[in-house]
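Render this sequence as a predicted structure.
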Amino acid sequence: MRETAISEAITIDMNEAAKLSGLSKSKIYKLVKQPDCNFALYVGPRKLLIRYRPFKEYLMTHDFI
């Protein structure tokens, strides 16, 4: 099975999001809790995935987090 590069992924997990962004997982959780968050994807009641492209766009368009 071929491993997908992060840039080709639709979703990434919290560890990958933290590594990619340089933000802590707790900061990402705080961003996910915001009402205007469009990059969180919940799989069942406990698993949280991050939509890669909207997350990347969010980081690129915000000067202050």
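Summary. The chain has a mean pLDDT of 92. The CA atoms of residues 35 and 58 lie 14 Å apart.
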